Structure formats: C-alpha cells, structure tokens
C-alpha cells in the first residue's frame, strides 16, 4: 500500500546533487557545513503512507518528539493532524508551541518528575503511559493536589526480543521500561482505589529500528490476550498504544524496512474487535530517511595502516555511529564518476569513537568535497551536543526547490550563554 510512496521519496544519490528540488552545493555554499537538511516532501509522504495504511481505524499517530524535536518539524506533524509522544516537560512545551493539541499528546518515560506530571495535567494532555507503581502513585498524588483526573495506560513489558541493537531494545524483561503483565494485572485489580487516575489503557513499545514484523506480532498478541482478560474481569479499555519502533533503510540494498501496510495489517489482526482508540508512536519512521547531514572533507590523512577521511562533521553532531555502531550511507554530492577508495571516515573530535564508518568504500575524495550522510533526520540533531566546544549546527527544511532555515547555526556567545565565573559564592 504505502511502500511505493516511501521509496519514491526525495533522496540524495551520487547522480543527483539536489534534494527535494534544492541544489545542495548552492545550499552548502550559502549556509556552510556541517548542515542538517530535511525534505518536507519526504516527511509528508511518510505520514500520508502511514495514514493511508491505518484508514478506517480509530487511530491517532503520536509522533515521538525525541526523534527530531525541531519546532518546524513538529509543525509539519501538527499540520498533518498528528499528536505527539513526549518524554519530558521540554518536549511538552515544544509540541504545544508547534500547535499540536494537548488532547493528542501522550507522556512516556520512566522518570517523570512531579513538576513534569503537574505541567502535563495543567496542559490537559490525553494520557500518561505509566512505567512503574511508584510513578502511578506520584500521578495519583499530583493529580489529587489539582483535584484533577489523569488518564493513564500501563506500559507493558511483554518480554519480547525486538531483534535490534541491545541499546535500542526496550521490551525485554531485563530492560528498565514498563511492567510485567502480572504486575499490570494487580494494578487493574486495585484500580478502584485510585481516585485521581483513570487507568483504562495499555501501552507497549518494544524497541527501535525494528525491521521484522514478528516481534511486533508477538508483542501485540500478548497485549491483546491481556486486553481480553481485562475485559472479562470488568475492566474495559479506552485505548491501546502500540508504540513506535518501525525501522528504516540506513543501508541501501541491505535494510528492508517494514511496509506500513503490512505493519497496519498486523495491528488490525492482533487487535481485531478492539473498539477503543489506537495510538501509534512512530519517530524514526517519519523523519530518518527525510534528512541528511551535509559535511565537507577537511583533509585526507594517510595513516600507517589506514587512510582517514577527516570531515567537518563529528560525533557531537551525529552520535548514532559512536553510540550504536550505526551504519549511515555516505554519498559524495558529485555526479562525476571517480575510482573507488577505502577510508575510515572520522570527525575532528578528540575521541577514537568519533568515527562515522570504518573501511568504507567511497568514490575517491579530495579536501573540500561535499558529502551527504544519509538517514540523519532522526536522532541526529536531537541528540547533538557541543562536545569539544563545537557549536550546534544549522538545520534547514527543503520543500520542492525552496529552503527555510529552521535553526540557525549556534554562535560562540550562544554556546557559552549561562556560564559565568565562580564569583557569587553562597552557602546552600
Ligand atoms: C523512542 C520511543 C518511540 C519512538 O521510537 P522510534 O523507534 O523512533 O519509532 C516511541 N515510543 C516510546 C515510548 C519511545 O521511547
């Protein structure tokens, strides 16, 4: 249903130096590098593909803000009628500022503070995805102080192996996320004691970058069996949140992403007969392939054993290769054919881990060449830091031949804002 639209999306290729109709050389010349560039067209196509796949279901897509939290990206989500999955008060503010209605916001995460719970109640969010008994009690207490009622779903840890990288797996019994079905059963049995929490939902999110439908199927069947048991026990549910985790193509010719239609079919089948609201929390799936990190070659260093391609982008700009050993395709933005060469592609940061790729075969490069690191639209800019005192890079949105800067390059003054000499010494 929707796979074709995903594959026809704007994409940088070696033969095509434009992205969403924008010439990347001109863009990099004007705005400098490193630079994040996102295709609005590609993001809209992903959203539309998923919405088509879900047609006929009472389903709300709550975009996982942490994947790319730029206000302009959130604005695209708001325009398309999406909600948001947030994990902090900062993300709540961003989602609201971008025009996402509070009634479409769900709040996940194991460490919500009282202040964050209060801010979410104040805003009137749709639902809390609750990760522990202690958190359930905190929500009950904070909602009590406002004489409010919080809608809540239990995050189930279905003990399913998502067959993904260990650092992005969240649905195993050993992970910090969610509670066992046995524990959730006790919460429902005792839910009458909750005066300020309406516990009437289930939530599951088993991990990220999942390329196989089986873990989703298994997890959803466990959730469905529990939902039916709860109905039998007199606890009807208003919502089931199936989480995010849909994988994307980081490596052309290797990664086979899940088709949105196939995924929706699994959801339909597993939750057939459920008459409440379905919630989905895709992050990466909507934005990863819509973004590139543009970077220039600073120099080529011939080491004794390896040849290094030193870029002006580094791990502080795009952490995924260092953090998750993630593969990102790297494409020279140049149509001329060149002989192949093998490089370790590295950044200037003083860490051995500042490596985008080892032993990567690329067309031969020269200093000044422009490269596009692909699949950088998710968990790129949102995970960036100023490590090594490198200011945050600019972000730009492309849309059919036009561009708009959606975050200007950070200045030195902005980077050090808030720091000051130790002079106003005080006793606590
Ligand atoms: C991170 C996260 C998501 C989004 O994950 P993706 O792999 O980007 O789709 C959804 N739900 C929860 C609870 C998350 O923590």
From TrEMBL:
Keywords: Amino-acid biosynthesis, Decarboxylase, Lyase, Lysine biosynthesis, Pyridoxal phosphate. It comes from the Bacteria. Pyridoxal 5'-phosphate binds at residues 245, 281-284, 379. Pathway: Amino-acid biosynthesis; L-lysine biosynthesis via DAP pathway; L-lysine from DL-2,6-diaminopimelate: step 1/1. Substrate binds at residues 284, 320, 324, 351, 379. The active site is at 350 (proton donor). Its cofactor is pyridoxal 5'-phosphate. Homodimer. Belongs to the Orn/Lys/Arg decarboxylase class-II family. LysA subfamily. This is Diaminopimelate decarboxylase. It comes from Frateuria terrea.
């Amino acid at each position: 249903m929707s796979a074709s639209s995903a594959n026809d999306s704007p994409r940088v290729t070696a033969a095509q130096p434009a992205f969403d109709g924008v010439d990347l050389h001109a863009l990099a010349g004007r705005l400098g590098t490193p630079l994040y560039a996102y295709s609005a067209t590609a993001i809209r196509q992903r959203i539309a593909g998923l919405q088509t796949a879900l047609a006929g279901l009472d389903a709300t897509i709550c975009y996982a803000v942490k994947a790319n939290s730029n206000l302009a990206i959130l604005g695209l989500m708001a325009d398309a009628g999406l909600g948001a999955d947030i994990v902090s008060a900062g993300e709540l503010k961003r989602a609201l500022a971008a025009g996402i209605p509070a009634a479409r916001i769900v709040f996940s995460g194991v460490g919500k503070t009282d202040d964050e719970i209060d801010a979410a109640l104040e805003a009137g969010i749709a639902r809390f995805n609750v990760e522990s008994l202690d958190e359930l009690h905190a929500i009950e207490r904070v909602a009590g102080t406002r004489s409010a009622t919080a809608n809540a779903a239990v995050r189930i840890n279905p003990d399913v192996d998502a067959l993904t990288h260990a650092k992005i797996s969240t649905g195993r019994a050993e992970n910090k996320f969610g509670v066992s079905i046995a524990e959730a059963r006790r919460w429902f049995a005792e839910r009458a004691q909750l005066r300020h929490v309406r516990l009437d939902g289930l939530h599951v999110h088993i991990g990220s970058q999942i390329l196989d439908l089986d873990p989703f199927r298994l997890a959803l069947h466990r959730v469905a069996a529990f939902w039916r048991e709860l109905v039998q026990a007199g606890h009807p549910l208003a919502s089931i949140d199936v989480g995010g985790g849909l994988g994307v193509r980081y490596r052309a010719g290797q990664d086979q992403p899940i088709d949105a239609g196939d995924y929706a079919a699994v959801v339909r089948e597993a939750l057939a007969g459920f008459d409440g609201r379905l919630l989905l929390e895709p992050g990466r799936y909507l934005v990863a392939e819509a973004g590139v990190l543009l970077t220039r070659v600073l120099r080529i260093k011939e080491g004794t054993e390896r040849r290094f391609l030193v870029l002006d982008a580094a791990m502080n700009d795009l952490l995924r290769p260092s953090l998750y050993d993630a593969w990102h395709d790297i494409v020279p933005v140049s149509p001329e054919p060149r002989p192949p060469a093998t490089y370790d592609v590295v950044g200037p940061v003083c860490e051995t881990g500042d490596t985008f790729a080892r032993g990567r075969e690329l067309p031969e490069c020269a200093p000044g060449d422009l490269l596009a690191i692909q699949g950088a639209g998710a968990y790129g800019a949102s995970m960036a830091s100023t490590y090594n005192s490198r200011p945050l890079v600019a972000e730009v949105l492309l849309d059919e031949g036009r561009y708009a800067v959606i975050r200007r390059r950070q200045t030195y003054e902005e980077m050090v804002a808030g720091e000051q000499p130790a002079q106003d010494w005080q006793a606590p």
